[in-house]
Amino acid sequence: MKKRGHEKHYYLMLLPGMVWLVMFSIVPMFGILMAFQNYNPGAGLLKSEWVGLDNFKYMFQLNDSRTVIVNTFIIAVGKIVFNLLVPLIFAILLNELRSMRYKKLVQTVVYLPHFLSWVIMSTIVIGIFGYYGVVNTVIGMFGYDPKLFMADAGIFRQLVIGTDVWKEFGFNAIIYLAALTGINPNLYEAAAIDGANRWQLIRQVTLPALTTTVVLLGVLSLGNVLNAGFDQVYNLYNPLVYSTGDILDTWVYRLGLQNLQFSLATAAGLFKSAVSFVLIFISYRLAYHYADYTVF
Amino acid sequence: MRRNMATLLSVVLLGLSLTACSGSNEASNNLKASSNPTSDTATNTKSNTETPALSGDDLAFSKFPKPVDVHIGMVVDPTDKTLPEGDSVSNNQYTRYLKEKYNINVIVDWTAATGNDFKQKVSLTIASGKLPDGMVVDDRSFMTKAASSGLLYDITDLFQQYQSSQVKDIMASTEGRAMENASYKGRMVALPNITVDTDGVHVLWIRKDWLDKLKLPVPKTLSDIEKTAKAFIDNKMGGNKTIGIAGPSKNSFPYSTFLVSSNNMGGFDPIFGAMDAYPGYWLDDGNGSVTYGTLTDKTKQTLALLADWYKKGLIDPEVGTRDNVGDPINANQAGIFFGPWWNGGYGNGDSFKNDPTANWQAYPVYSDDNKWNVHMKTTGSTYTVISKNAKPDVVKAILIMNNALVRDEATFDLSVNVGWYPLRNVMAAANETEYEYAELLKVLKGETNPEDYNKPNSLYKLMYADAKKVKNVIKPPFEDLNVSNFSTANFGDFQRLYSIMIGDRPFTTIPIDKKVYSVTYNQTETMETKWANLKKMEDETVLKIILGQASIDSFDKFVKNWKAQGGDEITAEVAGFLKK
Question: pLDDT averaged over chain B?
Fold first, then answer.
């Protein structure tokens, strides 16, 4: 009894979060009904005509849906993998630096891009890879013809993944850096006394100590496997790269907001959510299994 | 863990909840200001004796006895800095004018930035089913979607009663096309936008000063253009990065289409026209059948030509991926682009700021047999829609606001952008620009006086104001105007008059040999579900062919797929329009 009284203010502190959750996540869930209707805004959710799974059937009949799902999957998986590995390597390298001031400087500089939105970043990226951009200037020095990168469907995915990793790796490295500071220095000393060189220290001490973190982050990011990053792709793509660059979110955007096919867009959104839900569930089990991590 | 639940849905409902809880606080402010005595006592007493006595223009400009609140959703230009300090979107010279003259309180429920933001907001508002009393939407499919969902007020009768004589004349100048455009299933559900016909007539814009330097003639045909563009590049007229012909950006299109049939800056419309091709238009074959213009052999040939030009480096290498059409034009790197009358002047102001000698001139592009072929636009592409739930007084207020704008736009102090006028939806006589071109030339030559145009309620509402300005902006000689004839002292006046006198010169003075209209400018039922897919296929194929990423043979495959994936079905629907 005493304990409960003690916890009251915690519940109070939870309240704003719960209200937010109900307002923006629970209540809008009813909108899912649209996916099974031929939604008529005038009639509203309750009186619109019910069409069962027609919207889903139609969605999978469209040529686009397959391309879009494949694109989304490839881009998202690429981002997950590289957003896991690049920050890891970067964090380990940074950890090996002797000069604290230089280390801090590098850390600050590389995570700055994280704070710029894609609306701004896209202009920079388009500039860098433009016809007269830095990349083409360098290529030109070696005697190659300039190439229109932004119009090349063959490299659009790589470009999306690469620029995303470039933008985020500094920020993503923070968790690794935190984990690195948690490693007991005694382990390094002991290994050093046994005659381990720096490379061996990294392999035998640092990496094993980071395994749980890597597994945990990897498993948790599974839920993002259909999140390829709307704002990035939307700001970078053009009709020339639809074949490799169009993702679920941009497709839903064009369907729902530009072509007013509310029901179809909702169906596509629901499909994405359903797949994500399954993956989150799996990742939760995996996280528990491998990293002994539980949320609830 | 990130939650991915029905992102779109949450946004939709978020939009809904936001629209529901704004406004109201502005109302009280405006009410306080309402006790101003009005100068216009005549109208005042009249309307207080209630309406039946009024008719015609008295009714069209009547003042409400009690304040009427009009809730609106509004587009704003975030870069506009013309509102004086202390004024706001719901309290500025235009809203105060409406308040004082007509007792209309404008309450702005929400605003959104021009472009995609606004489209998104409108789309969400329609999805939520809760429209503000009035808003101006910029796509016909928004209007039809709202109308078919039963969200719009049927203004057929009230419009007949409340339109001013000016509005009536302007509507009449379109020969019924505007009314049809604003109607859904025979009922008028929106105030149409009526823009000048010349908005849809795309011409060649070229740097005449570059031509003069190279001692080249003005190009007339496509092969002339090819030679000229090559000469511009070879002589590095715009520096090392000279672009022969500027083209569409990642957000604009290679040609205007039946859905967006005008104002395509940087498209290749005149090139298609010169090849007698009209992609994006539904063409009447004359035998009861309809062809989609993109599928024709002539379009294919034009695409092959464009691909050839691109390969030769005559077209902007970054076409289709650029952020903004205007960039190379304003940076004075490009010597040629295509667009309607306002693209030079209004459309490329920075080009003149960067180089005051940039002598942009407009000309038609001719086919090899010396014909000027033009595809024509629909009457207008924006719509003032009124919510079904609006009270009759509110509907009347919105109609009066429109009448007032048409009558008084020229008298406003335009140092505050007229875009701040609530529910501004342009209504201009279809031939306004041509009329102004001819009359302004008369004023310049001293054949008429500006005061001759001081006619209240004139169909050409901006004429008098322009006539008074024109002599300050344009210096003689008046034959063959060049940029050197213009004063840029008042840049806004310069832009307007440059666009009229230079940009509209071809359309006013040169007869068009062939005008092509689309069988329809609207979506059919099947298009609602299938057009997005077909359009994507078309955009992708066309750009890929131009950029040489796909061979011209892929065109045939596109045609086949297009027909199979719903194109044939839609073509049949469009053919149905012919029989009516």
Answer: 87
Closest CA to A79 of A168, A183, A147, A205: A168
- Tens-place pLDDT, residues B112-160: 998 888 988 999 999 888 999 999 998 888 998 999 899 999 999 999 9
Å between B128 CA and nearest CA of chain A: 6
What stretches of B360-431 show up as alpha helix (H) in DSSP? 392-408
ipTM of the prediction? 0.75
Q: How far apart are CA B178 and CA A230, in angstroms?
A: 38
Most confident of A9-23, B166-180, B352-366: B352-366
- Residue A266: which of B9, B120, B126 has the nearest Cβ? B9
Cis peptide before B248 (omega within 30 of 0): no
Q: Among A31-35, A253-257, B380-384, which is the least confidently predicted range?
A: A253-257
Residue B482 near residue B358, CB atoms below 8 Å = no
The C-alpha atoms of residue A233 and residue A228 are separated, in whole angstroms, by 8
Residues B275, B139 share a domain: no
SS3 label, residue A60: helix
CB B319 within 8 A of CB B242: no
The 3-class secondary structure across B211-277, one letter per residue, is HHHCCCCCCCCHHHHHHHHHHHHHCCCCCCCCEEECCCCCCCCCCCCCCCCCCCCCCCHHHHHHCCC
Which residue type occupies B472? Answer: N
| Contact by Cβ (8 Å): B360, B501 | no
Residues B245 and B102 in one domain: no
Q: Which residue among A31, A243, A269 sits closest to B13, beta carbon to beta carbon?
A: A31
Distance, in Å, from the CA atom of B563 to the CA atom of B570, rounded to the nearest integer, reads 9
Nearest chain B Cα distance for residue A4, angstroms: 29
The topology under which CATH files domain A55-118+159-291 is: MetI-like fold (1.10.3720)
The reply to whether B178 falls in a domain is yes
Alpha-carbon distance B165 to B453, whole Å? Answer: 18
Conformation bin of residue B517: beta by default, left when phi > 0, alpha when psi is -120 to 50:
beta
> Could you read off the pLDDT of B478-488 as tens digits, one per residue?
988 999 999 99
Whether chain B has a CB inside 8 Å of the CB on A245: the answer is no
Does B6 have pLDDT greater than 80? no
Counting the structural domains of chain B, the total is 3
Confidence band of A224 (pLDDT split at 50, 70, 90)? confident
What is the rounded CA–CA span in Å between residue A160 and residue A79? 9
